[in-house]
User: Fold these one by one.
Assistant:
Number 1:
Amino acid sequence: MLTALPTRRVALLALLSSLSLGSATPSGTVSPPRPNVLFIVADDLCTHVGAYGDKVVQTPHFDALAARGVRFDRAYAQYPVCNPSRISFLSGLRPDTTRIYGNDVALRTTLPDAVTLPQRLRENGYFTASISKIFHVSQWDPRRPDDKPGTWKLDDARSWDFRVNTKPTELGAKGDRLHLAGGPQPNDVLNYRLMAEGDDDDQDDGQAVRDAITLLEAKRAQPFFLAVGFRRPHAAWIAPKKYFDLYPLASLRLPDPGPREGVPPIAFTNPTPNYGVPEEMLKMLQAYYASTTFMDAQLGRLLAALERTGHAANTIIVMIGDHGWHLGEHGLWHKGTLFEESARAPLVIVAPGARGNGRATTRIVEFVDLFPTLAELCGLPAPAGLAGVSLRPLLENPAAPWSRPAFTQMLRAGNKMGRSVRTERWRYTEWDEGRAGSELYDHAADPGEHINVAAHPRHAVTVGELQRLLRANGGSR
């Protein structure tokens, strides 16, 4: 149904042919082939996927990928909003270093001389390409005439040899549209679901895969860093109708939002624990699940192309969600909190030959660890001053000793910063350096983070230890 595709493919091939894709090694030298990197980011993907234990959502391709590599069961974003999170893991720096806390500031605004992960690889002979949303490029929406494909809001030109943005076809923007008045932000332009007409290639993620396949099929001597950004399951929740049909409303169940007593109000982004009516929330759940399964189908096409083109044996694959997402837990239907569901996201790394492949690790890791990890795996020095550490020891032995915590932060109105530290057993959070409240959750007894025990005298020692971790990381003082 994607009638414009042949023209688009010809144009993409013409553009690729104009790029310098020659060998990165000097003439006459011989060096072992460096690994390629396929870096995949799914927007707003939480751990409601099969490989992380969800029994409803159908994600066979993600699950198969997780079974091939190392699945990180407790991986955490440093800021649970798209732009700050992506800038953090692509630069290897924490938000307090980037000083970017929202979706309207580009990396070079605050750090003009930063070296990003793709930039480092590009400077060392890699061909780097960005397909769709990697940095925070425009989120295309058919009801916003000023949002044009090919606009590069907040992207970073120094990082890429090649970049392309995508949008749905006219057919893919049509269908059964439902405004969800009780969704993430009432009356937000993205707050709707669309059972779209057309097939997968009429959606921006389908087109992103077609463009990525074209790059994989191109002949070049250089190793590549190919970053592919899937916009789904980010709201608006758009997918071809066949994916919605997989999730009849009668088969879905909403989570118990749990109590809010004893939790600082600032921890929540809505004053009451539910939006709208249960039927509407079920439709939101259906739409998120449908968008997730649609994304998974595109992932399957991309991974099949990697195998078909002969790159798989020498390609490191990284698959992440840029942060988590609430699906009714705590009465929330969005991101931007310091609860587990928002801070935690999927992470899978397939490193060819790694001894840990096929296993999972419960060690606490952070997304800032990705830059030093990939630099090491690619045999390159990482820039000085990165916040994370290489995860290679866990790729070789997922049960290796590991004692690092994870830090996540979130700025609220009134310039009140929340800072959270996650250890093997505990999550401790302070809002506005404790002036707006503190939270302590014992994951051994309360994995849903419903009972705040920060004020309980028997946990005073634990609170003190976790406060020191926050302060050592530049947090509350």
Number 2:
Amino acid sequence: MSSDLVYKSAFELAQLIRAKSLSPVELTNAVLQRIEASQPVLNAFITVCGERAMSEAKAAEQAIMRGELIGPLHGIPLSVKDLVATEGVRTTYGSQIYRDNVPVKDAVSVARLRRAGAILVGKTTSPEFGTSPITRSPLFGQTSNAWNQGRTSGGSSGGAGAAIAAGLGPLAIASDGGGSTRIPAAANGVVGFKQSLGVVPHDSANDQFGNTSYITPTTRTVRDTALMLAVMAGPDASDPNSISRMPVDFVGATTGDLSLAGLRIGYRLRLGNDAVAEDVVREVTASALAFRDAGATVSEAEHPFNNIEPVFSTVLMAYRYAQHGKHLAQHRDIMCPTFVRQIENAPSTSFEKIYAAILARTEAFHAVQSWFEDFDIVAMPTISRGALSIDHDHFAPIEIDGKTVDVVRRAWYPYTSVFNLTGHPAVSLPSGFDRDGLPLAIQLVARPGADALLMKVAAAFEQLRPWAHLKPALPQLD
């Protein structure tokens, strides 16, 4: 089938639907057909809501024909990561334990997008409980990279990243607990935005006061990300971090003045890691030069920073054990061995070590915050090299430029989890390709609350180095 329709942005599709030049039925049907064709190739979905989606598309079409007032995303297909609750549609958390779990209500973000007119087409894949940068699970297998099916789609929102890159709908809800939106976005060449803590309510977080996880958008264009966040954001009584958040004009940030004149942008190639691929260095450097040519003041950020992975892992694994350690006695044989291995040592971690890691979050916040005394935006890689092999062992070292370096969490994405700990907004944007033709990405970071500024700079970068016209070769679908 032709990819012309399914690769249009949500912004374009919404305009066509409003003008009655495109039927939501035609669009939804095209996306569902493409999802079906993609499953043997990518395995990006665990559940597809075909009948329900078509029923909602027909209702959306009838509403337009009756001249009713419609929302900003009326008739636009939406996928939701399998960690995020969807009313009446199973949500398994990538786990055999919850394979038949069907929530009775939508997560706040899902409900808001559906009220705006978006149509749920399915649930995208995630590793068990979202605790791996490689999307594979005992429940559904593994998810391939859209650009090379021998490589991983990243994780834990690997299904969302691959789906957006492959034209399986323009909008995806992902989640990001340590880079889980930005890593797949980088690996698949799409946009992954992790907003400031509390901008989007996270009503299912078990620890609302120590939360490091975010419900996030994944799209192909910055404006589509802004459209999603404009709907998803805003206070909700379920999330104390969101209650005092003021409205942010995300769409206006992408459509107004995108001048970078006078903006101070710092860039850095490392964040406590020793190795970064030459291709990544090339792309980050080229991106910095593009910002400079556009009028920004650009210089290297040299603030010292240690690898945050030991702190992050201690906090995360203690949290995950508290959430899911109860399953080990009864369900270990059907759980993902990678997940089990990550959490089974958590009970032996001392209270002192756990709370020392919690205190280190504050130290990390102050360290990152100090960057913004000198800069408005800090740019860096999202991942240190292109996508890993789809069969890569979570605990094994990775190779960079032919040399064996450190394990995945410390060496592939040392740039992401720190901002989950500190709450700073960060966005991953496509920046080019490596020598194997795999996407590479640049990550932009701003001070907490500067989400609109971050969105503006992301939109400016998209104009400087466009990417949305680039599509992976998927002959099985096209």
Number 3:
Amino acid sequence: MKVSVLTATYNRASFLDKLYNSLLKNSNYGISIEWLIMDDGSVDDTKNIVDRFKENIKEKEIKNLEIKYFYQENQGKMVAINNLVEKSSGDLIVDCDSDDYFTHDAFKIIKEEYEKYMKIKENEKGKYNNFYGFCYLKYDQNGNNMGNNFNNKETTMFDLYFKEGETGEKTIVFFSDVRKKYKHELEHGEKFITEARMYHKMDEKYKMICINKPIMICEYQESGYTKNINKQFIENKYGYYEYFKEILEKDMKGVLFNKRLYAIKHYILFGFLTKKKLNIRNIKNLKNKLLYILLYIPGIIKTRIKFRIKSKNKKNKKKKVKYQ
């Protein structure tokens, strides 16, 4: 079996060592690993660092790890990942940010679960054709679970976060034949869209298999500059608008009340920012329509105040975010 690891990076040369070393440690489990790196217009020495990794692999005669480096003019993380998916050749695909890395036994766990799945799929013909991959836990560098353990063996990303109450991060290892059917859809030339928009579209046809084991360690870095959440919203408002619009067009049966509020509030917010005409007909569920009516005027007032204050106050508190 072969796993394609996709990394989009922008001026993160100094952070790549941990990911590289974690792949080295995982190259002894009988899995072929290809690490595809898309340099999204970096001006640091990313290419030189990657060349050093390649030389190290050659010198150590490591057969199960191959590194492929690509360069593109800066277009953002989502375009970079879209391009890497097309270039991948593994049976499985997993994204890994440049400042994250794998646990020492990640690929052993992936191999065991994949082989178990393939055996069941062969014996239960047709029953296990509707999955897009495995969903694993993600830990921080202090060994803390970044979310909750799974309660269900099989679920979707939408159900996990909107019905089951998950709030933390997870790691998805995709079946490549399914993953290659989808891409991150960007709006109006924006550079970012939440990954969840693509996941929710995959959920319409497929489910994922949940494994209560961590395979990735997440580290948030304070890089050259920081961005606050309001700035992200303004720069990527059209994508966010479409994302929340699509959520409210779904059958919301079983969705938690706080998640309904979350979706409706943000639909109003991004409708205001994009100057889109909000249409109650876009909202499928009667309960959500009533909430929308109740929240619309307070939401518009709050949004006007929030973003007017932001424009006057340039000394906003900084919030660390990952490369997008």
